[in-house]
UniProtKB/TrEMBL annotation:
InterPro entries: MFS, MFS_dom, MFS_trans_sf, MFS_Transporters, Sugar_transporter_CS. The lineage of its organism: Bacteria, Bacillati, Actinomycetota, Actinomycetes, Geodermatophilales. Its main location: membrane. This is Predicted arabinose efflux permease, MFS family. Residues 36-434 form the Major facilitator superfamily (MFS) profile domain.
Length: 450
Protein backbone atom coordinates (compact mmCIF):
# COMPACT_ATOMS: atom_id res chain seq x y z
CA UNK A 1 0.00 0.00 0.00
CA UNK A 2 1.36 3.43 -0.90
CA UNK A 3 1.97 6.18 1.68
CA UNK A 4 -1.01 8.09 0.35
CA UNK A 5 -3.24 5.04 0.54
CA UNK A 6 -2.00 4.33 4.06
CA UNK A 7 -2.87 7.85 5.10
CA UNK A 8 -6.28 7.47 3.56
CA UNK A 9 -6.84 4.22 5.46
CA UNK A 10 -5.98 5.93 8.72
CA UNK A 11 -7.57 9.32 8.10
CA UNK A 12 -10.66 8.18 6.23
CA UNK A 13 -11.06 5.24 8.57
CA UNK A 14 -10.96 7.54 11.58
CA UNK A 15 -13.22 10.30 10.33
CA UNK A 16 -14.81 9.60 6.96
CA UNK A 17 -16.28 6.10 7.17
CA UNK A 18 -18.21 5.01 10.23
CA UNK A 19 -20.16 1.94 11.23
CA UNK A 20 -23.89 2.09 11.86
CA UNK A 21 -23.25 2.61 15.58
CA UNK A 22 -21.05 5.64 14.85
CA UNK A 23 -17.70 3.97 15.55
CA UNK A 24 -14.83 4.94 13.24
CA UNK A 25 -13.81 2.19 10.82
CA UNK A 26 -10.10 1.29 10.78
CA UNK A 27 -8.19 -1.60 9.31
CA UNK A 28 -5.63 -3.55 11.27
CA UNK A 29 -5.24 -6.38 13.72
CA UNK A 30 -4.35 -4.09 16.63
CA UNK A 31 -7.12 -1.63 15.83
CA UNK A 32 -9.75 -4.39 15.82
CA UNK A 33 -8.25 -6.66 18.47
CA UNK A 34 -11.42 -7.16 20.52
CA UNK A 35 -13.66 -8.19 17.62
CA UNK A 36 -10.88 -10.23 16.02
CA UNK A 37 -10.32 -12.17 19.26
CA UNK A 38 -14.05 -12.76 19.60
CA UNK A 39 -14.20 -14.14 16.06
CA UNK A 40 -11.26 -16.44 16.84
CA UNK A 41 -13.25 -17.82 19.78
CA UNK A 42 -16.36 -18.22 17.63
CA UNK A 43 -14.39 -20.14 15.01
CA UNK A 44 -13.01 -22.42 17.72
CA UNK A 45 -16.61 -23.34 18.51
CA UNK A 46 -17.23 -23.92 14.79
CA UNK A 47 -14.27 -26.31 14.74
CA UNK A 48 -15.52 -28.07 17.84
CA UNK A 49 -18.79 -28.88 16.07
CA UNK A 50 -16.76 -30.69 13.41
CA UNK A 51 -14.45 -32.35 15.93
CA UNK A 52 -17.30 -34.13 17.74
CA UNK A 53 -17.49 -36.52 14.77
CA UNK A 54 -13.84 -37.21 13.92
CA UNK A 55 -13.26 -40.15 16.26
CA UNK A 56 -16.74 -41.47 16.94
CA UNK A 57 -18.71 -41.58 13.67
CA UNK A 58 -16.52 -44.06 11.70
CA UNK A 59 -16.70 -46.42 14.68
CA UNK A 60 -20.42 -45.80 15.12
CA UNK A 61 -20.96 -46.83 11.48
CA UNK A 62 -19.27 -50.18 12.04
CA UNK A 63 -20.29 -51.06 15.59
CA UNK A 64 -23.80 -49.59 15.91
CA UNK A 65 -25.17 -49.57 12.36
CA UNK A 66 -23.24 -52.63 11.06
CA UNK A 67 -21.95 -50.93 7.91
CA UNK A 68 -19.17 -52.94 6.31
CA UNK A 69 -18.70 -51.36 2.87
CA UNK A 70 -16.33 -48.39 3.01
CA UNK A 71 -18.38 -46.50 0.42
CA UNK A 72 -21.44 -46.75 2.66
CA UNK A 73 -19.46 -45.71 5.74
CA UNK A 74 -18.20 -42.59 3.98
CA UNK A 75 -21.64 -41.39 2.82
CA UNK A 76 -21.78 -38.98 5.76
CA UNK A 77 -18.57 -37.27 4.61
CA UNK A 78 -19.89 -37.14 1.04
CA UNK A 79 -23.09 -35.48 2.27
CA UNK A 80 -21.14 -33.10 4.50
CA UNK A 81 -18.72 -32.12 1.75
CA UNK A 82 -21.38 -31.43 -0.87
CA UNK A 83 -23.51 -29.40 1.54
CA UNK A 84 -20.56 -27.40 2.84
CA UNK A 85 -19.10 -26.75 -0.60
CA UNK A 86 -22.34 -25.39 -2.03
CA UNK A 87 -23.06 -23.35 1.09
CA UNK A 88 -19.56 -21.81 0.98
CA UNK A 89 -20.42 -20.33 -2.39
CA UNK A 90 -23.73 -18.98 -1.13
CA UNK A 91 -22.11 -17.64 2.05
CA UNK A 92 -19.77 -15.44 0.03
CA UNK A 93 -22.56 -14.05 -2.15
CA UNK A 94 -24.94 -13.57 0.79
CA UNK A 95 -22.22 -11.86 2.86
CA UNK A 96 -21.84 -9.26 0.13
CA UNK A 97 -25.60 -8.80 -0.23
CA UNK A 98 -26.94 -9.01 3.34
CA UNK A 99 -23.88 -8.52 5.52
CA UNK A 100 -21.59 -10.94 7.34
CA UNK A 101 -23.33 -11.18 10.71
CA UNK A 102 -26.77 -12.40 9.49
CA UNK A 103 -25.05 -15.22 7.60
CA UNK A 104 -23.01 -16.17 10.68
CA UNK A 105 -26.07 -16.26 12.95
CA UNK A 106 -28.05 -18.31 10.42
CA UNK A 107 -25.23 -20.86 10.34
CA UNK A 108 -25.39 -21.33 14.09
CA UNK A 109 -29.17 -21.74 14.02
CA UNK A 110 -28.72 -24.58 11.51
CA UNK A 111 -26.10 -26.18 13.80
CA UNK A 112 -28.35 -26.52 16.84
CA UNK A 113 -30.13 -29.81 15.84
CA UNK A 114 -26.93 -31.60 14.72
CA UNK A 115 -25.72 -33.13 18.03
CA UNK A 116 -29.30 -34.08 18.93
CA UNK A 117 -29.69 -35.97 15.65
CA UNK A 118 -26.37 -37.74 16.22
CA UNK A 119 -27.52 -38.83 19.68
CA UNK A 120 -30.98 -40.05 18.72
CA UNK A 121 -30.45 -41.29 15.13
CA UNK A 122 -32.27 -44.66 14.74
CA UNK A 123 -30.64 -45.41 11.37
CA UNK A 124 -27.63 -44.37 9.31
CA UNK A 125 -29.81 -42.16 7.10
CA UNK A 126 -30.37 -39.88 10.09
CA UNK A 127 -26.60 -39.56 10.52
CA UNK A 128 -26.27 -38.56 6.87
CA UNK A 129 -29.08 -36.00 7.31
CA UNK A 130 -27.31 -34.57 10.38
CA UNK A 131 -24.18 -34.15 8.28
CA UNK A 132 -26.07 -32.27 5.60
CA UNK A 133 -27.08 -29.79 8.31
CA UNK A 134 -23.52 -29.76 9.68
CA UNK A 135 -22.15 -29.02 6.22
CA UNK A 136 -24.59 -26.14 5.72
CA UNK A 137 -23.74 -24.77 9.15
CA UNK A 138 -19.98 -25.06 8.63
CA UNK A 139 -20.23 -23.40 5.22
CA UNK A 140 -22.08 -20.43 6.65
CA UNK A 141 -20.16 -20.02 9.91
CA UNK A 142 -16.57 -20.86 8.95
CA UNK A 143 -16.73 -18.97 5.64
CA UNK A 144 -18.12 -15.91 7.37
CA UNK A 145 -15.51 -15.85 10.14
CA UNK A 146 -12.82 -16.04 7.43
CA UNK A 147 -14.36 -13.16 5.50
CA UNK A 148 -14.84 -11.06 8.64
CA UNK A 149 -11.21 -11.46 9.72
CA UNK A 150 -9.97 -10.55 6.24
CA UNK A 151 -12.22 -7.49 6.42
CA UNK A 152 -10.83 -6.38 9.79
CA UNK A 153 -7.07 -6.76 9.35
CA UNK A 154 -6.40 -5.27 5.93
CA UNK A 155 -3.61 -6.52 3.65
CA UNK A 156 -0.53 -6.31 5.87
CA UNK A 157 -1.42 -9.07 8.35
CA UNK A 158 -3.65 -11.26 6.21
CA UNK A 159 -1.51 -14.39 6.55
CA UNK A 160 -1.33 -14.03 10.33
CA UNK A 161 -5.09 -13.47 10.50
CA UNK A 162 -5.81 -16.63 8.52
CA UNK A 163 -3.30 -18.56 10.62
CA UNK A 164 -5.06 -17.51 13.82
CA UNK A 165 -8.49 -18.26 12.37
CA UNK A 166 -7.64 -21.71 11.06
CA UNK A 167 -5.53 -22.55 14.13
CA UNK A 168 -8.47 -21.85 16.43
CA UNK A 169 -10.79 -24.00 14.34
CA UNK A 170 -8.52 -26.99 13.97
CA UNK A 171 -7.14 -26.95 17.50
CA UNK A 172 -10.77 -27.19 18.57
CA UNK A 173 -11.26 -30.07 16.10
CA UNK A 174 -8.27 -31.83 17.68
CA UNK A 175 -9.25 -31.17 21.29
CA UNK A 176 -12.81 -32.32 20.68
CA UNK A 177 -11.70 -35.43 18.76
CA UNK A 178 -9.45 -36.34 21.68
CA UNK A 179 -12.14 -35.61 24.27
CA UNK A 180 -14.83 -37.57 22.44
CA UNK A 181 -12.43 -40.50 22.07
CA UNK A 182 -11.94 -40.68 25.83
CA UNK A 183 -15.65 -40.13 26.48
CA UNK A 184 -16.52 -42.94 24.06
CA UNK A 185 -13.99 -45.26 25.71
CA UNK A 186 -15.42 -44.48 29.16
CA UNK A 187 -19.17 -44.24 28.47
CA UNK A 188 -19.85 -45.62 24.99
CA UNK A 189 -20.24 -44.15 21.51
CA UNK A 190 -23.55 -42.39 22.36
CA UNK A 191 -24.77 -40.06 23.85
CA UNK A 192 -22.00 -38.58 26.04
CA UNK A 193 -19.47 -37.66 23.28
CA UNK A 194 -22.06 -35.43 21.61
CA UNK A 195 -22.92 -33.40 24.72
CA UNK A 196 -19.93 -31.22 23.77
CA UNK A 197 -21.63 -30.34 20.49
CA UNK A 198 -24.76 -29.15 22.33
CA UNK A 199 -22.63 -26.79 24.44
CA UNK A 200 -20.68 -25.50 21.42
CA UNK A 201 -23.86 -24.72 19.46
CA UNK A 202 -25.42 -22.81 22.36
CA UNK A 203 -22.28 -20.73 22.96
CA UNK A 204 -21.70 -20.04 19.28
CA UNK A 205 -25.25 -18.87 18.67
CA UNK A 206 -25.24 -16.67 21.76
CA UNK A 207 -21.93 -14.95 21.00
CA UNK A 208 -22.71 -14.45 17.31
CA UNK A 209 -26.12 -12.97 18.05
CA UNK A 210 -25.27 -10.74 20.98
CA UNK A 211 -21.62 -9.70 20.70
CA UNK A 212 -20.24 -10.06 17.15
CA UNK A 213 -20.41 -6.87 15.04
CA UNK A 214 -20.82 -6.42 11.29
CA UNK A 215 -17.56 -5.96 9.31
CA UNK A 216 -18.73 -5.21 5.79
CA UNK A 217 -17.81 -1.52 6.14
CA UNK A 218 -14.18 -2.52 6.69
CA UNK A 219 -14.16 -4.12 3.24
CA UNK A 220 -15.66 -0.94 1.80
CA UNK A 221 -12.87 1.09 3.38
CA UNK A 222 -10.20 -1.18 1.94
CA UNK A 223 -11.86 -0.92 -1.48
CA UNK A 224 -11.31 2.87 -1.35
CA UNK A 225 -7.56 2.36 -0.94
CA UNK A 226 -7.15 -0.73 -3.13
CA UNK A 227 -4.87 0.03 -6.10
CA UNK A 228 -6.73 -0.18 -9.39
CA UNK A 229 -5.33 -2.59 -12.02
CA UNK A 230 -3.28 -0.87 -14.71
CA UNK A 231 -5.79 -1.82 -17.38
CA UNK A 232 -8.78 -0.34 -15.56
CA UNK A 233 -12.04 -1.94 -16.63
CA UNK A 234 -10.15 -3.90 -19.32
CA UNK A 235 -8.16 -5.73 -16.63
CA UNK A 236 -9.63 -9.16 -15.76
CA UNK A 237 -9.42 -8.37 -12.01
CA UNK A 238 -10.96 -4.92 -12.01
CA UNK A 239 -13.51 -3.88 -9.39
CA UNK A 240 -16.72 -4.50 -11.31
CA UNK A 241 -17.08 -8.23 -12.01
CA UNK A 242 -20.29 -10.22 -12.34
CA UNK A 243 -20.85 -13.39 -10.31
CA UNK A 244 -20.03 -15.47 -13.36
CA UNK A 245 -16.80 -13.59 -14.02
CA UNK A 246 -15.68 -14.02 -10.40
CA UNK A 247 -16.40 -17.74 -10.66
CA UNK A 248 -14.40 -18.16 -13.87
CA UNK A 249 -11.43 -16.13 -12.61
CA UNK A 250 -11.29 -17.93 -9.26
CA UNK A 251 -11.87 -21.41 -10.64
CA UNK A 252 -10.03 -21.56 -13.96
CA UNK A 253 -8.56 -18.47 -15.52
CA UNK A 254 -6.50 -16.44 -13.03
CA UNK A 255 -3.31 -18.47 -12.36
CA UNK A 256 -2.97 -17.82 -8.62
CA UNK A 257 -6.68 -18.02 -7.80
CA UNK A 258 -7.25 -21.20 -9.80
CA UNK A 259 -4.06 -22.81 -8.49
CA UNK A 260 -5.24 -22.14 -4.95
CA UNK A 261 -8.65 -23.63 -5.77
CA UNK A 262 -7.23 -26.90 -7.09
CA UNK A 263 -4.77 -27.20 -4.19
CA UNK A 264 -7.57 -26.59 -1.72
CA UNK A 265 -9.71 -29.29 -3.32
CA UNK A 266 -6.91 -31.87 -3.14
CA UNK A 267 -6.01 -30.84 0.42
CA UNK A 268 -9.53 -31.57 1.63
CA UNK A 269 -9.69 -34.68 -0.52
CA UNK A 270 -6.92 -36.16 1.59
CA UNK A 271 -8.51 -34.80 4.78
CA UNK A 272 -11.74 -36.61 3.86
CA UNK A 273 -9.72 -39.80 3.52
CA UNK A 274 -8.06 -39.22 6.91
CA UNK A 275 -11.40 -38.46 8.58
CA UNK A 276 -13.31 -41.41 7.19
CA UNK A 277 -10.81 -44.25 6.76
CA UNK A 278 -7.94 -43.73 9.19
CA UNK A 279 -9.93 -44.64 12.35
CA UNK A 280 -11.06 -47.85 10.61
CA UNK A 281 -7.48 -48.56 9.44
CA UNK A 282 -6.16 -48.09 12.98
CA UNK A 283 -8.91 -50.28 14.47
CA UNK A 284 -8.14 -53.05 11.95
CA UNK A 285 -4.61 -53.19 13.36
CA UNK A 286 -5.91 -53.69 16.89
CA UNK A 287 -5.70 -50.17 18.34
CA UNK A 288 -8.22 -49.30 21.07
CA UNK A 289 -10.58 -46.33 20.93
CA UNK A 290 -8.35 -44.26 23.23
CA UNK A 291 -5.28 -44.59 20.98
CA UNK A 292 -7.39 -44.06 17.87
CA UNK A 293 -8.60 -40.82 19.48
CA UNK A 294 -4.99 -39.75 20.08
CA UNK A 295 -4.10 -40.28 16.41
CA UNK A 296 -7.34 -38.63 15.25
CA UNK A 297 -6.46 -35.59 17.42
CA UNK A 298 -2.72 -35.43 16.69
CA UNK A 299 -3.06 -34.55 13.02
CA UNK A 300 -5.46 -31.57 13.46
CA UNK A 301 -3.57 -30.47 16.59
CA UNK A 302 -0.31 -30.05 14.67
CA UNK A 303 -2.31 -28.56 11.81
CA UNK A 304 -3.88 -26.02 14.16
CA UNK A 305 -0.74 -25.07 16.08
CA UNK A 306 1.39 -24.94 12.95
CA UNK A 307 -0.84 -22.32 11.36
CA UNK A 308 0.10 -19.86 14.09
CA UNK A 309 3.60 -19.98 12.58
CA UNK A 310 3.02 -20.56 8.87
CA UNK A 311 0.36 -17.87 8.40
CA UNK A 312 2.60 -15.18 9.91
CA UNK A 313 5.70 -16.39 8.05
CA UNK A 314 3.85 -16.23 4.74
CA UNK A 315 3.44 -12.49 5.36
CA UNK A 316 7.25 -12.30 5.31
CA UNK A 317 8.37 -14.99 2.90
CA UNK A 318 5.41 -15.23 0.53
CA UNK A 319 2.60 -17.73 -0.02
CA UNK A 320 3.89 -19.99 -2.79
CA UNK A 321 6.74 -21.77 -0.92
CA UNK A 322 4.36 -22.83 1.83
CA UNK A 323 1.68 -24.00 -0.59
CA UNK A 324 3.99 -26.09 -2.77
CA UNK A 325 6.07 -27.44 0.12
CA UNK A 326 2.99 -28.24 2.19
CA UNK A 327 1.32 -30.28 -0.55
CA UNK A 328 4.48 -32.32 -1.11
CA UNK A 329 4.92 -32.91 2.64
CA UNK A 330 1.32 -34.12 2.88
CA UNK A 331 1.97 -36.56 0.04
CA UNK A 332 4.95 -38.01 1.87
CA UNK A 333 2.96 -38.33 5.09
CA UNK A 334 0.12 -40.16 3.35
CA UNK A 335 2.62 -42.59 1.80
CA UNK A 336 3.92 -43.27 5.31
CA UNK A 337 0.40 -44.01 6.54
CA UNK A 338 0.00 -46.51 3.69
CA UNK A 339 3.23 -48.34 4.57
CA UNK A 340 3.01 -48.34 8.38
CA UNK A 341 1.11 -50.59 10.79
CA UNK A 342 2.23 -49.45 14.24
CA UNK A 343 1.14 -46.62 16.53
CA UNK A 344 4.56 -44.82 16.74
CA UNK A 345 5.03 -44.60 12.95
CA UNK A 346 1.42 -43.54 12.44
CA UNK A 347 1.99 -40.85 15.06
CA UNK A 348 5.00 -39.52 13.12
CA UNK A 349 2.97 -39.57 9.91
CA UNK A 350 0.13 -37.71 11.64
CA UNK A 351 2.55 -34.99 12.74
CA UNK A 352 3.93 -34.68 9.19
CA UNK A 353 0.43 -34.58 7.68
CA UNK A 354 -0.59 -31.89 10.15
CA UNK A 355 2.55 -29.84 9.43
CA UNK A 356 1.99 -30.04 5.68
CA UNK A 357 -1.62 -29.00 6.03
CA UNK A 358 -0.61 -26.12 8.32
CA UNK A 359 1.71 -24.85 5.58
CA UNK A 360 -1.09 -24.89 3.03
CA UNK A 361 -4.34 -23.95 4.76
CA UNK A 362 -3.91 -20.32 5.87
CA UNK A 363 -1.68 -19.40 2.92
CA UNK A 364 -4.24 -20.51 0.33
CA UNK A 365 -6.86 -18.27 1.95
CA UNK A 366 -4.36 -15.42 2.24
CA UNK A 367 -3.46 -15.80 -1.45
CA UNK A 368 -7.12 -15.47 -2.40
CA UNK A 369 -7.31 -12.32 -0.26
CA UNK A 370 -4.15 -10.96 -1.90
CA UNK A 371 -5.47 -11.24 -5.45
CA UNK A 372 -9.23 -10.72 -5.19
CA UNK A 373 -10.52 -7.14 -5.19
CA UNK A 374 -12.29 -6.17 -1.94
CA UNK A 375 -15.47 -5.47 -3.91
CA UNK A 376 -15.80 -9.17 -4.83
CA UNK A 377 -13.40 -10.82 -2.39
CA UNK A 378 -16.15 -12.43 -0.29
CA UNK A 379 -17.52 -14.09 -3.43
CA UNK A 380 -14.05 -15.27 -4.42
CA UNK A 381 -13.45 -16.71 -0.94
CA UNK A 382 -16.79 -18.51 -1.20
CA UNK A 383 -15.91 -19.96 -4.61
CA UNK A 384 -12.48 -21.07 -3.40
CA UNK A 385 -14.11 -22.75 -0.42
CA UNK A 386 -16.67 -24.33 -2.77
CA UNK A 387 -13.80 -26.10 -4.54
CA UNK A 388 -11.81 -26.75 -1.37
CA UNK A 389 -14.64 -28.35 0.59
CA UNK A 390 -15.86 -30.16 -2.50
CA UNK A 391 -12.70 -32.13 -1.84
CA UNK A 392 -14.43 -33.77 1.14
CA UNK A 393 -17.05 -35.21 -1.21
CA UNK A 394 -14.50 -36.24 -3.86
CA UNK A 395 -12.26 -37.77 -1.21
CA UNK A 396 -15.10 -39.71 0.43
CA UNK A 397 -16.31 -41.11 -2.89
CA UNK A 398 -12.85 -41.89 -4.28
CA UNK A 399 -11.49 -43.36 -1.05
CA UNK A 400 -14.61 -45.45 -0.47
CA UNK A 401 -14.68 -46.93 -3.96
CA UNK A 402 -10.94 -47.65 -4.01
CA UNK A 403 -11.00 -49.15 -0.52
CA UNK A 404 -13.90 -51.43 -1.41
CA UNK A 405 -12.25 -52.56 -4.66
CA UNK A 406 -8.57 -52.71 -3.74
CA UNK A 407 -8.25 -52.18 0.03
CA UNK A 408 -7.67 -49.21 2.31
CA UNK A 409 -3.93 -48.95 1.76
CA UNK A 410 -4.31 -48.71 -2.02
CA UNK A 411 -6.79 -45.87 -1.52
CA UNK A 412 -4.23 -44.03 0.63
CA UNK A 413 -1.49 -44.53 -2.00
CA UNK A 414 -3.69 -43.08 -4.76
CA UNK A 415 -4.56 -40.01 -2.68
CA UNK A 416 -0.87 -39.53 -1.85
CA UNK A 417 -0.05 -39.48 -5.57
CA UNK A 418 -2.83 -36.96 -6.30
CA UNK A 419 -1.56 -34.72 -3.50
CA UNK A 420 1.97 -34.76 -4.91
CA UNK A 421 0.65 -33.93 -8.39
CA UNK A 422 -1.28 -30.97 -6.96
CA UNK A 423 1.90 -29.59 -5.39
CA UNK A 424 3.78 -29.88 -8.68
CA UNK A 425 0.95 -28.11 -10.53
CA UNK A 426 1.02 -25.23 -8.04
CA UNK A 427 4.81 -25.00 -8.43
CA UNK A 428 4.49 -24.69 -12.21
CA UNK A 429 1.42 -22.45 -12.54
CA UNK A 430 1.12 -20.26 -9.46
CA UNK A 431 2.94 -16.96 -9.04
CA UNK A 432 3.81 -15.32 -5.73
CA UNK A 433 0.85 -13.21 -4.59
CA UNK A 434 2.29 -11.39 -1.57
CA UNK A 435 5.23 -9.02 -1.74
CA UNK A 436 5.33 -7.21 1.60
CA UNK A 437 5.92 -3.49 1.44
CA UNK A 438 8.74 -2.06 3.56
CA UNK A 439 7.59 -0.39 6.79
CA UNK A 440 7.29 3.41 6.77
CA UNK A 441 10.53 5.24 7.46
CA UNK A 442 11.20 5.44 11.19
CA UNK A 443 8.52 2.87 12.12
CA UNK A 444 9.32 -0.17 14.20
CA UNK A 445 8.96 -3.62 12.66
CA UNK A 446 5.33 -4.71 12.70
CA UNK A 447 3.96 -1.14 12.95
CA UNK A 448 2.36 -1.22 9.53
CA UNK A 449 -0.42 1.39 9.43
CA UNK A 450 -3.05 -1.14 8.37
Amino acid sequence: MSAGASALAEGEGATGLRAAAGRPIRLGLRQNAAQFTLLVAVNALVGGMLGQERTVLPLLAERTFDLTAYTAVLTYILAFGLAKALTNYLAGAWSDRYGRKPVLVTGWIVAVPVPLLLIWAPSWGWIVAANVLLGISQGLTWSTTVIMKIDLVGPARRGLAMGLNEAAGYLAVAATALATGYLAAAYGLRPEPFFLGIAYAALGLGLSTLVVRETRDHARLEAQTHPAPAGGRNHPLHEHLTHGQVFVQTSFREPALSSASQAGLVNNLNDGLAWGLFPVLFASSGLGIGRIGVLAALYPAVWGLGQLITGALSDRWGRKPFIVGGMLLQAGALATFAMADTFPIWAVAAVALGAGTAMVYPTLLAAIGDVAHPAWRARSVGIYRLWRDGGFAVGALLAGVLADLYGMRTAVWVVAALTAASGVLAAVRMYETHRPAPPPRGAAAGDHPT
